[in-house]
UniProtKB/TrEMBL annotation:
Pfam families: RecO_C, RecO_N. One of its GO terms (cellular component) is bacterial nucleoid. This is DNA repair protein RecO. Involved in DNA repair and RecF pathway recombination. Keywords: DNA damage, DNA recombination, DNA repair. Belongs to the RecO family. NCBIfam families: reco. Signal peptide: none annotated. Gene3D superfamilies: Nucleic acid-binding proteins (2.40.50.140), Recombination protein O, C-terminal domain (1.20.1440.120). SUPFAM superfamilies: ArfGap/RecO-like zinc finger, Nucleic acid-binding proteins. It comes from Calderihabitans maritimus.
């Protein structure tokens, strides 16, 4: 077996044994790869920085039966801010957990790889919530799960601006006539759908120009997160983390106002 190269983002990592770390990379060349990095928790290890969560590095790997072994790694982009700022850390954790839970092993997808990289960059400088919505809708499209947002997912008819419902189970909007098809479908505004459509087309460098109201953010979050959870068929720890963090921040602010 031969050494191979991979450029990838560390999307999961846990300490193992005395000084090792087991990581999952999402790499440009090979998709998701599990590997062990030996001795990297020793203070003098040269690979220490390159195997940290969210870091984009160039790896040299040796294939193994269950786990490959990292023999060399060099940092390309450390994404330090994503580990230092708690809010950004929470959102970045969600991004990588989505890749972990929705993307199959060893399935290279260059578009998805560049989407992940672009979104991590966005998270370092743009509104984290908007950056994550951008990632979600594009990830869904790349995986073939893009929700049907223009015409009714049931009958195919054009859905007028009012009384639009979104069905998580059917994966799209429902017109008034078809809304009884899914009792759990919830209302969604035309405005929110327009923003979502913009997110699928926008150049990520222009994302800061999108102005999204608070109610619309809530609509988009509910719609995308519920749909993703349905697709993932499991709970996402990082999503609970985001919600708990938000609750803490709100409580703190309320407390400040009272005192
Ligand atoms: Zn319909």
């Amino acid at each position: 077996m031969r050494l191979y190269k991979a450029e990838g983002v560390v999307i999961r990592g846990r300490d193992y044994g005395e000084a090792d770390r087991i990581i999952t990379l999402y790499s440009r060349q090979h998709g998701k790869v599990d590997a062990i990095a030996k001795g990297v928790r020793k203070p003098k290890s040269r690979m220490r920085g390159g195997v940290q969560l969210f870091t984009f590095s160039s790896f040299l790997l040796y294939p193994g039966r269950t786990l490959d072994t990292v023999t060399q790694c060099e940092i390309i982009e450390p994404f330090t801010l994503l580990r230092e700022d708690l809010t950004r850390f929470a959102y970045a954790s969600y991004l990588v957990e989505l890749v972990n839970s929705l993307v199959p092993e060893r399935d290279a997808n260059e578009k998805l790889f560049f989407l992940l990289l672009a979104s991590l960059h966005l998270l370092t400088r743009e509104d984290p919530e908007v950056s994550v919505r951008f990632f979600e809708i594009r990830l869904l499209s790349l995986l073939g799960y893009r929700p049907q947002l223009q015409n009714c997912v049931q009958c195919g008819k054009f859905v007028p601006d009012k009384s639009i419902k979104f069905s998580v189970r059917l994966g799209g909007v429902l017109c008034r006539d078809c809304s009884p098809e899914d009792k759990s479908a919830f209302s969604i505004s035309k405005g929110a759908l327009t923003v979502l459509d913009q997110l699928t087309k926008i150049d990520p460098r222009r994302i800061g120009r999108l102005k999204i109201s608070v109610p619309m953010r809530q609509e988009l979050e509910r719609m995308l997160c519920e749909y993703i959870l349905y697709r993932a068929e499991r709970q996402l720890k990082s999503l609970d983390f985001i919600f708990n963090l938000r609750r803490l921040v709100t409580e703190k602010e309320t407390h400040k106002e009272i005192n």
